[in-house]
Amino acid sequence: MKKVLILFFLLYSGYSFAQDLAYTRKTLATLTSPDFWGRGYTKNGMAKTADFLEKEFKALGLTAVNKQQFTFPVNSFPNEMKLKINGRTLTPGKDFIVHPASTGLKGKGELIERDSLHFLAQEQKLILTFQPKLTWSVATKVEDFTEVYIQKGALKEVPKNFEIAIENEFIPQFKAANVCGLVKGTEHPDSILVVTAHYDHLGGMGKDVYFPGANDNASGVSLLLNLAKHYAKNPQSYTIAFICFAAEEAGLIGSKYFTEQPLFELSHIRFLLNLDLVGTGDTGATVVNATQYPSAFRLLNEINDENKFLSKINPRGKAANSDHYFFTEKGVPAFFLYTQGGISAYHDVDDKAVTLPLTAYENLYKLILKFNAALMKSAKMN
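That's the Peptidase family M28 sequence above. Prediction below.
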């Protein structure tokens, strides 16, 4: 009978996690769908995502669910996105992207070769730059020129003339919101462990092209939601807070705002774990701030070595490359964890949910649960 119960428990545990993985795939598909349009600055993508996360937090059973609103300037490209070179129509996202700080431009003319990679139309203030890989970003200002990056190999001949129609819209006070929810601690509610992930991505470029942002960072949001689902059903001695940040891609704006206008005392945070780019894992993971908090990093590695969750966890020093940064600057101990290996899609139209391997997803989920449990049993890491 005892063996039967053990077998049932193991089967149930596996089934339970399989349900979580199905939830992850569903969440990834939702967040990367055209309805959310790259979770950015056109077609109401970011606002729709914030509403979705607020509803999801409440459905999972989190309390004190709050949308923390703020504004910031951003340059967007809501409509026309057309380019012809030597009479040939190029495909946005695949053959070319526009520099995110570019002003709009409509017209045609001749091109002057500056060198093999740069071509100019001085009167129209147009720059064409050939690149081996097209990656996009977000700009909070507008320049007085238009620069277009063209995929190397998209043209077989030297560019001689152009026809262009690109529309930009600068929004001085774009509205965004961080989304926060809690699972209150049963014994030490004023001691808080925080899990964060940014939900924004790059949005769309024109009316027909958007950037799905599966690994960056629908993967982190999906893992955060799975952890929220677990902790809502299994409250811990400490309070567990979950924050989905907006405007990370625009310069860590959402997390900076939170540290300046916190929804709970930053001094109550015992540790913060930021999840960004966690959809791979073939070659392990890296932890930013590992050298800042060596005791916590040693603890994480001890758990990983004992359980063989990830093939390797690499240490990295302090870096302002995700939403952990401004918390660290305020004295909050924090890690930024990202996985490595697998797909190379990043800030491009190919970062899709269907190609995201989730190689280390299950083991990373388990590692975080054990790491948080160990933190709650130990003193504050330093």
